[in-house]
Amino acid sequence: MSQRTALVGKFAGLVFVLTASVASAQPGVPISATFNVAFTASPNTGGTTYCGGTPLAAIVEAHGVGTSLTVPMFIQVNKTLTPGGAMHGCVTLTMANGDTLNATYEGTIALPDGNNFSPFSGSLTFTGGTGQFRNATGTATFTAWASFFYPTLSFLGGTSLPVQGTAFYLVQGSVSLGH
Fold this sequence. Notes:
This protein is mainly beta.
C-alpha cells in the first residue's frame, strides 16, 4: 500500500470518528448528503409492503453510494410506488465501519417526461439502527431525479421487466443519537 493510500485511509477514518463524536455530543446534528443509486422496478403483483406502508403498484429496490460530511456510505432503498403518485418504503444507510442508520421513506414521484426523467421528493424519518445509530431519531427531506433506461417505460406500454434506471438524491435534515 502506498503512503498516499494509507494517509487517505487514515484521514477518512479520522473524519468519520470526528463526525461521530460531534453527532453523539449534540442533538439534531445536520445531515447534508448526496447519493447515486441504480434501481430495478417491477409490478407489485404480490401485495408487498415495506415499513408498514400500503401495497402500491410497483416494487423498487435500489442500491448505491454517497457521502455526508465527506463520510462515505452505502444506501439501500426498498419501496413501493404508484407511477405519478405516492411512494413508501425503508432506507438503510451503512457506514464504512458497518454501523447502519434506518429510516422510513415517504414521497411522491412524477410521471417520466419525454426524455424518461422523473423528479421525486419526500421525507425520511430515522428509526434507529446499529452501533452508534442504535437509538437514533430525526428527520430529513430529499429531492431527487430518476432516469429510466431499460426497457423504455415498461409500465406505460413496454413488455419487458424489470424497469432499470438510476436516481440521484440530495438529502438534508438532522439526526440525534439517543445514547
